[in-house]
Amino acid sequence: MKIILASFHKNGTKSMNEAFQTLGYSVYDWFEHFWYHGNDWIRILEVGGTVEDFRRMYKDIDVVVDSPTLLFWEQILEAFPDAKKAPKNQLLVFDLKDGWAPLCEFLGKEIPDKPFPFNNKSASLFSDAIKHHPIMRRMIKETIFSMGTLTILGIYCGYKIWKKI
Fold it and tell me: Fewest beta carbons less than 10 Å away: which of 30, 88, 147, 154?
């Protein structure tokens, strides 16, 4: 864990997610949190989590953003004390309008040769996710396959029932 983005929704988390990915980081956003660690998060939200839980869950991930980690950033920080976040010497207060320069300087990265991302404008999260996010695309494919299978099964059963009448 290198970076903990402790920010509320609609404060640039989707833009920062893409920015971190552009800089070469592996990022877990709310899709990934619940896809890969859904049962862990249900338990943590109900009874709490331990430093060991967060170490195990995020040992191979560079960045966490958005829910539910924003609620547990202090515990995640305990598990990964070298991550960039708070206290003050590790904190970046960042305005998306400032673009790549302050973020890259803070992280010690080269400024990418592309515009800074501004995602989820006008609450386009779901339409963007359907088009681009691999977990959402997989879910859609699985849903289409399941619905197709159920439709074929329904037609077959209906045919068998009709033949008996």
Answer: 88
The CATH topology of domain 3-123 is Rossmann fold (3.40.50)
CA distance 66 to 70: 6
Q: CB atoms < 10 A from the CB of 85, how many?
A: 20
| Model confidence pLDDT, tens digit, residues 45-82 | 999 999 999 999 999 999 999 888 888 989 999 999 99
Residue 119, C-beta contacts closer than 8 angstroms, at least 6 positions apart: 14, 15, 17, 18, 128
In the chain, % helix, strand, coil (3-state, to 5) comes to 60, 5, 35
SS3 of residue 63 by DSSP: strand
Asked if 125 contacts 14 with a C-beta cutoff of 8 angstroms, the reply is: yes
Instruction: Give the phi and the psi of residue 158 in degrees, each rounded to 5.
Output: -60, -40
Neighbour count for residue 13 (Cβ, 10 Å): 20
Q: For the whole model, what pTM was predicted?
A: 0.65
Taking alpha carbons only, the member of 9, 6, 1, 4 closest to residue 119 is 9
